[in-house]
């Protein structure tokens, strides 16, 4: 009996051409000049084709925050101590974090997945425990994770999507939490885009100028150490294992699994976009299933968005992570669906249509 390939080796489905055509026809029939609603029109058309529904909807939103620690924190690349990762997991569950507030106001389901923290969690109730290790290894001196750990992280993302699909989710948002994870994300992006750390490294949680210089130096060391591995035909799995984080890999796995389940994805900021970049390098067809919420204030994000040919919906100077920027953008997707579904056509309204 043949063994099936891993899910990340399976191409996602293409968008349904009939629903794309119907969506364009619907937009052309509405009482407005063609194209006058800008990106909102294409949002609705794409959602219709993704969901295979003539009337798309994103009422049922699933937000999953993947959390993990990073060994590279021993290099002093973060303004916050590693204890904060576990403390923030508790804050998510207790409802005090930004993403917790936004999820409540969106009436969205929020799930928190612990992939491994360096310090004991102050809370377990309400947390999906999917521990791989107490954080990754120091990517500046060793591979961040083994091949087995990478696969576990990818599968954690897939499992989160499967849980979302069982609840009837119409939109998936992946968030992240992990002190030091902007360093890991910048390292992955540098390797995938063949760019120097100076082009992609930012202050993260608030590094000063000296801290940023230290972060850039650590990234140079990491890229040099893993040069032979990560330049091997730009293999995204090798890059993730050598330089990534558990939550970055889980996000990549979740995005791939969501596309395979025909579940639209709203991508958050810098770290989520780096995960999307790695995932689209594995499966280019994934791009059809991604919507990009915002352009982060993290300096490297614009480079990553450009590589993804992404046109983000918002530019608010946000850089919190957690999925917060994506949660803020949900309202735009809902308004796009409402306009597409509820506006009158020229024929219905008895209005003469222009050229």
Structure overview:
- This protein has 15 helices and six strands.
- The protein has one domain (about 60-330): 3-Layer(aba) Sandwich (Rossmann fold), CATH 3.40.50.10210.
- α6 packs across α8 (about 210-225).
- β5, α12 and β6 (about 290) form a beta-alpha-beta unit.
- The model has no long low-confidence stretch (mean pLDDT about 95).
- It is globular and about 70 Å long.
- The protein has a six-stranded parallel sheet, with helices on both faces.
- Helix content is about 50%, strand content about 10%.
- With about 350 residues, the protein is α/β, with parallel strands linked by helices.
Task: Write a concise keyword list for the protein shown above.
alpha/beta; Rossmann fold; 6-stranded parallel β-sheet
